[in-house]
């Protein structure tokens, strides 16, 4: 099933330009030599011990999940709408730096006849007051990346479960912080990797678990999506959603870091197929980036026309195309690619290679058993036989509600159903930080002539006995999908 290419990630913003210092841009402009990022290597070498194993942990059930949202731009506003379709959800608080974003989601709640939520806006740190509310069970984070880890950590410290948009961390130190806090507080910390819930990804995961591809030996994933114009687009803070990044935060990321900054969409589903952290683990990686051939040209064009872009004059942007290779403890391999600044049809690749077969999603969904691609009739038979129960249960409603073809809704429904039934979440804190750690680790490798670097074992050895998550609803699956009627004109759900 194809997903919308446009606006695949337009993360809602809680902060503006204050998220980054001017030094990031000016430092690049001065042409300083690239650091070897030794602090990343030092963080990798730190010794840790597991306090409590969060893999497979089932927190006490929460029949009615009271939710507070931080960040209400495109991703956050879509999440508010999607969760309104799920039984047992109360939307208690809405937070964003911008009043217009909060009021937009508040109007939506009014249009569907839901109680008014508490509002938090206008101050860069007001999100803390939202998190501290006593009548909230779950914090849902859709802010710029730089805020993800500290918001998630603060939520757990204040007794809340937390789910957070991708990537959940930017540094290895942040990864260990979340692991240690989740283990100590016994609060769920789930990264919202929606691509794990796409229809084809779920189909191939189930087929792999049924042995259709033999022993899985290799996987490939990617995030190839030309966001060049979006990254340079001026944000319009008078609108809740505008197809831009508030405070130009994503352009700043691309002007201060070089590597695979956004690995999880392609990596997450492959990691699940390979049982990463649940029978195998990512052992080490190596990474290489091209030079930048497009972003500097766009900067040169814009800076001469508009003083708004002056901070980016002569900035050194990340390389356009990054390739990262990962080796696992069991001797399997993963290739992850990243390109958000050059022309290319949208692709996450999603290639699963086993000893007996192969599946690939882009440019078209195809499966090979043995040496031959199967015919369309056989593909239909595979869909009929191997579609997991989670798709059968909510797949059609997910397509109606929306959010990247329905995978956003499946993700949200499953997460809420697990919380309501006291079940382990599909993605735990170890998954989130492991998949996200590819970003800083790839930065180090690129800065050091593609030398390999170890991937920390965030499970502290428990990967050897942790069990894979279930996708066939052997337990749970009791949460109903509600019909939501708007009082006025129809609204688009889950902007994509």
Report on the structure:
The chain has 496 residues and is of the alpha/beta class. It folds into two domains: 65-193, 3-Layer(aba) Sandwich (Rossmann fold); 195-389 and 429-464, Dihydrodipicolinate Reductase, domain 2 (2-Layer Sandwich), CATH 3.30.360. The protein has helices at 23-29, 38-44, 74-83, 99-111, 127-131, 145-157, 172-185, 199-209, 228-232, 249-254, 264-273, 295-303, 376-386, 389-401, 407-421, 429-447, and strands at 65-70, 89-95, 118-120, 138-141, 161-164, 189-191, 216-224, 282-289, 322-328, 333-339, 351-354, 357-360, 366-369, 372-373, 453-454. Strands 14-13-12-11-7-10-9-8-15 form a nine-stranded mixed beta sheet. Strands 3-2-1-4-5-6 form a six-stranded parallel beta sheet, with helices on both faces. A hairpin with a 4-residue loop joins β9 (322-328) and β10 (333-339). α11 packs across α16 (429-447). The longest helix is centred in the last third of the chain and has 19 residues, at 429-447. The chain is globular and about 55 Å long. The two termini are 14 Å apart. The model is unreliable at 1-33 and 489-496 (pLDDT under 50).
């Amino acid at each position: 099933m194809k997903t919308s290419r446009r606006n695949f990630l337009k993360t809602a913003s809680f902060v503006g330009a204050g998220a980054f210092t001017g030094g990031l841009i000016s430092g690049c402009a001065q042409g300083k030599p690239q650091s070897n990022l030794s602090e990343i290597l030092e963080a990798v070498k730190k010794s840790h011990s597991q306090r409590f194993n969060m893999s497979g942990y089932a927190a006490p059930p929460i029949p009615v999940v009271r939710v507070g949202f931080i960040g209400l731009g495109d991703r956050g506003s879509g999440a508010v709408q999607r969760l309104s379709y799920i039984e047992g959800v109360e939307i208690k608080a809405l937070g964003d730096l911008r009043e217009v974003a909060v009021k937009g989601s508040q109007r939506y709640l009014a249009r569907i006849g839901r109680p008014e939520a508490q509002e938090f806006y206008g101050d860069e740190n007001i999100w803390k007051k939202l998190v501290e509310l006593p009548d909230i069970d779950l914090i849902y984070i859709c802010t710029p990346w730089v805020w993800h880890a500290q918001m998630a950590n603060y939520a757990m410290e204040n007794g809340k479960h937390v789910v957070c948009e991708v990537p959940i961390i930017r540094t290895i130190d942040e990864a260990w912080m979340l692991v240690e806090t989740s283990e100590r507080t016994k609060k769920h910390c789930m990264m919202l990797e929606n691509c794990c819930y796409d229809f084809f990804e779920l189909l191939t995961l189930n087929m792999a678990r049924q042995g259709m591809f033999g022993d899985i030996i290799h996987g490939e994933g990617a995030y190839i999506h030309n966001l060049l114009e979006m990254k340079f687009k001026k944000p319009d803070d008078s609108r809740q959603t505008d197809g831009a990044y508030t405070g130009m935060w994503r352009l700043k990321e691309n002007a201060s870091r070089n590597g695979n900054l956004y690995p999880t969409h392609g990596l997450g589903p492959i990691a699940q197929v390979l049982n990463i952290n649940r029978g195998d683990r990512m052992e080490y990686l190596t990474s290489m980036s091209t030079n930048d051939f497009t972003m500097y040209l766009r900067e040169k064009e814009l800076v001469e026309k508009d003083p708004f872009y002056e901070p980016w004059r002569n900035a050194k942007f990340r390389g356009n195309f990054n390739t990262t290779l990962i080796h696992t403890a069991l001797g399997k391999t993963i290739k992850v690619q990243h390109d958000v600044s050059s022309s290319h049809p949208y692709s996450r690749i999603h290639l699963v290679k086993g000893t007996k077969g192969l599946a690939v999603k882009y440019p078209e969904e195809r499966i090979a058993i043995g040496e031959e691609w199967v015919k369309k009739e056989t593909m239909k038979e595979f869909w009929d036989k191997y579609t997991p129960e989670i798709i059968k249960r909510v797949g059609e409603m997910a397509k109606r509600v929306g959010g990247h073809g329905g995978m956003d809704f499946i993700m949200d429904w499953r997460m809420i159903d697990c919380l309501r039934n006291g079940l382990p979440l599909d993605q735990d804190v170890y998954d989130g930080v492991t998949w996200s750690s590819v970003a800083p680790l790839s930065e180090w490798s690129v800065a050091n002539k593609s030398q390999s670097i170890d991937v920390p074992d965030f499970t502290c050895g428990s990967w050897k006995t942790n069990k894979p998550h279930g996708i066939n609803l052997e337990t749970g699956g009791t949460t109903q999908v509600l019909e939501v009627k708007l009082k006025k004109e129809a609204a688009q759900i889950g902007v994509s």
